[in-house]
Amino acid sequence: MVTRKFEFLEHTADIKFRAYGSDLNEIFENSAYALKEVMVGGKVKGKNKKKFLIINPVSLRIDLKRLLYSFLEKFLILIDTEGQILAEIKKIKIDEKNGRLEAVFLTDNIKNYNTMTDVKAVTYNDMIVSKEKKFAQVVVDV
Hints:
- By secondary structure, the protein is α+β, with helices and mostly antiparallel strands.
- The model has no long low-confidence stretch (mean pLDDT 93).
- It has a single domain, classed as Archease, Possible Chaperone, Chain: A, domain 1.
- It is built from 2 helices and 7 strands.
- A 4-stranded antiparallel β-sheet has the order 1-2-7-6.
């Protein structure tokens, strides 16, 4: 069992974090929580239930970086289009074989919180997803 969910690492211009977990589902979940922490810090009340499905293009080999990028980008799009910020992930299921990710989560209106940092984008720069070492590393453009 992993005790820490994520940590922030030094970066010259943007924000870098490393998220941990006992499996891919937990690693992705904690990556989403780290992204939320960058933007609002602290607790968010879960008032609205949301879900999404990400299906990566079929290929011979699943691209976990692309799946993580798409997953985190969905939360940024949710802020931009609906003004909703992640509160809690209720369910996440990654199907590596078919390149699919299903997530059910709770959100709240971002206007109810003091935003700390405006995240412009998730990047592939210095991104790592390691099932063996049980972590993901992400840099977000601020």
